[in-house]
Structures are given as C-alpha cells and as structure tokens.
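--- STAGE predict ---
source: upstream dedup step, 1 unique chain passed
mode: sequence only
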Amino acid sequence: MLRLFLKGFTATAVCLLAATLAVAQEERTSGAEETPVAASVAVDPVAADERIATRLNEILNATGWFEDAEVRVDQGVAFLRGRSDTEAHREWAGALARNTEGVVAAVNRMEVNEVSMWDLSPAWGEIQELAAAGIRKSPLLLLALLVLTLTWWFAARWTRAAGSLLEPRIDNRLLRRVLSRLAAVPIALFGMYVVLKISGLTGLATTVLGGTGLIGLVLGIAFRDIAENFLASLMLSVQNPFATGDLISVAGHKGFVQSVNTRSTLLMTLDGNHVQIPNATIYKETIVNFTANPNTRFDFVVGIGYDDSIEQAQGLARDIVLRQEGVVAEPEPWVVVEALGAATVNIKAYFWVETAKYNGLKVRSAVIRSVKRALEDAGISMPDEAREVVFPAGVPVQMIESGSAAAGPSPPHGKSKRTQPIDVSEAEGSLQSEAVEIEEQARKARVPEQGTNLLGDEETS
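--- STAGE serialize ---
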C-alpha cells in the first residue's frame, strides 16, 4: 500500500506541475497577440496631421515593442516606419493607426526583426515568465499536494476497514483485496476532483468524473493483456484448480506450483527451473493436476515364452507388485494377458502408486526389476523376438535322460496380502516423492517476481 501511495503521489505531483506550467504558458501567451485594439483613438474633435502623428508616436514608444518607430501623417494617411520584434506587434501597430480618429488610411512599412538561431534570449524570457508564474501558483500547488496526501490517507484507511468487514464474509483473499480497493475508488476520484479544482484546471476537473467511462475504455484497450491476466487470476483463485505445492502440467510445462499473482503463475519444474506462465494462458489451457488424487496408476508389459505357464507368471507378477513399497493394496493390482506376440505371450500388470508420498517412476522401475528377477528364479523364460538362424554344417544333437523338471513355485490363489517390502536398487535411490526436494530447491532459489501469493497467506520474497 505504501508503494502504491508513493507512486500515486509522484504521478499526481508531476500532473500538478505540468498543469502549473500550462497555466503559466497560457498567461504568458495572452500578451500582445490577444491585446485588443480600441475601436477608435480620440485625439481632438478636429485633429491636425501633426497631432495625430505625435499621438501615435507616443503610443508606440510607450509599448516598448518597436525600434526607431516613426509615424508621419499626410492628408489623413498615416505612414508607419521602424522595426518590430514580432509580426503580431507589427500588425497591432497598423490596426492602431487605422482606428485612430482622423486617419482615413494606414500604410504600415514596419519591418520585423529577424531573430538569430543562436539567440537564446526568447527561451530565457519564457523560462523567467514560467518561473514567475510557478511562484505565483506555488501556494495553490502546496494546498493541492496537501489535499492529495489526505485523500490517499483516507483511501488507505477505508480500504483497510473494508477488508476487515469483508474478511469474515469472503474467504478468498484476492476477492477481498479487489472489493476493498474498489470501495476506495469514490474517495480517490473525489480527491482528484478537488485537487484539479484547486490547481485551476476547472475544465479538466469537470471531465474527470464524466470521462471515467471513456478513460476506462481506452485503458482497457491499451492494457488488454494485463486486464485479461488479472481477470484470469480472479477466476483461478475462485475455482481453485490447483493449490500451492501441487504438481501440474499446463501449456507444455510440468512442475510444482510455487505462487500465483495477478499476472502469472510460477512453477518450479522437475529440473529445478522457474517457469512463469501468464494466468490467461493457464485459464485457457488444459490443466493436468497430478497431486489432486494421491494415487496414480502405472503399468508395464513383460513377455514370457509360449512353453511357460501363463497363470504362474501372472501370479508371480501380482505377488511382486503387491510386495513393492509404494504400491497401494486398494485398488488392488491385476495382471492380464495383453497379446500373443511373435515369440512371446505378453502379460501386462496394472497397479496404483501412492504418488503423494512416493516417486511413481522409481516405484515402477523397482517393480519391473523385481518381476524380472522373480520370473528368472522361477525358470520362466522371457525370449526375444523370433529370428531365423541357419547352420550350414548342421547342429549336433545329444540325447539325455528325461527327468522331472523342477517345479516352480505354485501361483498364489485368492487375494494376496502385503508382506515385507522387497529390496530397492541403489541406482533408483529412495522411492520417496521428489516434492520435498523440489520445495527445498524453491526455497533456496531466487524468486523471479515479487508479489503476493494468491493461493496462500505468505508473500513471496
């Protein structure tokens, strides 16, 4: 709020200074160009040419606008000579002569002084006049600044009071902030109106309230993207498609939600990088939330030989899956025959992993490794794709006595129960979810954009 106050205070001070300079410029330019010439200049009821010339010379010299001014009148015709500092003053002198009583015509032969491009005296004169006008307006400017300060103070207090009134009625913090600030808009508009009136900009002050709709339209077009992201942040805050710490995938990016502000949503990817996605993009895109459901289903395929027992392989795979750490018993896993391949019978295992606590990819890797080892220990083959091999010299065959093959472990019947979890490979590491590690990296990393997290009560730093 202090930052907004300082920004508003600075902007208004600049506007007031510009307004003061504009008023000073208006006062300065309301000089000879707008100086009215009398409809007639009285000399005497019966004026001689000499007296008319004398009167006009006195007037021109009194203005100080002319050099070597000389007026000669002959038979009521006034001839003007000399040099003028501006074209406007030259025309003013001609109009003065024509409106003088007893003058029937005026011949203006005055010349305008050519100003050198290196002559800075006009600019210096304007600066002096603007400075003088600014000094004259300084009391009003100070009063306007005082009114502006009081306006911002009252607006801030009213915003805080409105937020306190809305807090027990509206749970969403973003909505409370927006509504409380909207409640202070009338106070801010009234204060700006008073400031403009004090500054002497009556016309602008009158159009402040009347032109609010037009200003809003112009600002809406100019800041369309900003307004779109702001409205999208409101919708995301109300609908809550994700929370802080959720693992989501949106707009081609996958990561843990760090914060949501009025412009963008900040994600920490699984690679440890910050990604800022505009809220409008998130609101329009498809959001996949991997954390909303604590469990995620995984599967894998294993091929066994045609001579092996399918029921035995299914039972072994199901038993191994149930014993794996991270796999939930409900919903229970199941193993089905997927297809009859060229050289193998493909069986497919489906199981659910508690991804809120464990890393699903690591658990799946451990399951596949354990199932392969169990099938090998049970004597179940896992052949490769069939290939034709040609032996030109033939293949020697040796007859051996037939014996009873070692019987493998009998397939489990009924519903299996979870036993002691099987071992974990050192290469896979801990099966725990990487959410804790990512959050630790997020705490150590520099936050790309400061602002209030709309999904939580803390402010990002």
